[in-house]
Amino acid sequence: MLHIVNGDSVAEKLKQGVVQGEILVWREVYPHGPVFQDPAEIDNRAMRSQHLEQTLGIPRSEFVQISRRQEQILSEFHKYEEVVLWFEHDLFDQTMLCYLLHFFSERPMLQTKLSLLSIGEYPGIELFRGLGQLSVKQMETLSGTWKSVSAEELELGKAFWQAYTADNPQMLGQLLSRDTSALPFAHDAYRAHLARFPSTHNGLGIVEQTTLEMLHAGLNSPYELFKHVGDRLHTLGMGDLEYWHLLKVMSQDPYPLIQFRGLDCEAVLTDFGKSVKDGKEDWIAKRGIDRWYGGVHLQGDTPRWRWDSFLQVIHDSGSEV
Fold this sequence. Notes:
Blueprint: E1 2-5, H1 8-18, E2 22-25, H2 42-56, H3 60-75, E3 82-86, H4 91-105, E4 113-117, H5 136-142, E5 147-148, H6 151-164, H7 170-176, H8 186-194, H9 206-216, H10 222-232, H11 240-250, E6 258-261, E7 266-269, H12 271-277, H13 283-287, E8 289-293, E9 296-300, E10 305-308, E11 313-316, E12 319-320
Parallel strand pairs: 1-2, 1-3, 3-4
Antiparallel strand pairs: 4-5, 6-7, 8-9, 10-11, 11-12
Helix pairs in contact: 1-5, 2-3, 4-6, 6-7, 9-10
């Protein structure tokens, strides 16, 4: 049996007698940087590895080595009687899950059974952020509760991965208008992804907007900001490296939204940041953008795609989906 999980914390707990078999930690951060339908293609991997090194500090050679190793193990899935996928409700996990469902949807399973354990809550935990919160004993209650992956789940996972990696977010918007209940957490996770696009209101994505609101409310410590923004936007499952990079971009010239002061590097709103937060200025129109959202690369000061938070739709140069 092969268990594919979302992080080292979960893997270490499973190894403490919770499950039998081998455990593979799927090491990716698909919500950040360029993402392609076939991430193993040489040029795609080269572009992604370069971006992750430049923005998150992940060494290019390390990323390539890890990617090749986990894909080699995945390609040998037929050696196992059963493969169990352990993924939770947020965008970080749902993108990994949909990539794996896409992978398996295109291969005959033959004698290998594919199963899924995916949860968005746990009894007694008020704000469920993920499987890593659970103790070994709590993890034991989940062991064996996984269910066989259906053909409908495989096809929907494949559709989500193709839409997420497309260079046109209309595909994802259209998919979200369909019945996606076969993967119950995918709708909210990918809707949260679209909310990361620059808004029609002021050019800020949901993470930048929430950060400025937290600063306005009096939070100044980057670590406190990460905790509170992460709690409010837990559907994203955003990691610390992603958030530190975003804070860095928000503080850069020209037109910084925030500044860092003192030995503690406290963050404060700039006057321009206050104007943007209130919708009096447009951040992207002032400074431009060069950022990836799944398969969409936004560049320049008039990016094609914007998110309308009021109508909950993606706009294409004034048109909506």
